[in-house]
Amino acid sequence: MMMFPYLKLGPIDGILLISVFIMLVLTLIFKWSVWEFLFAVVAVIIAFLAGSMKPNKKNVLAFLKK
Questions:
Q1: Is pTM, for the whole model, over 0.70?
Q2: With CB atoms 3.0 to 4.6 Å apart as the test, which of 13, 15, 27, 52 could cross-link to 37 if both were Cys?
């Protein structure tokens, strides 16, 4: 039974939420500022999105075919 059926969260989203939670814990332990926390969270989100991107197979090494 899902509490919020309009939120389509999967296991990958859970990993992202856990990593943001870890950043929050590290912020509290090491007494980071709000800016350091936000920069760390943005870096984690950018790395997450870059890791989930699929490569374009047809344009890889296209410059060598010329």
A1: no
A2: 27
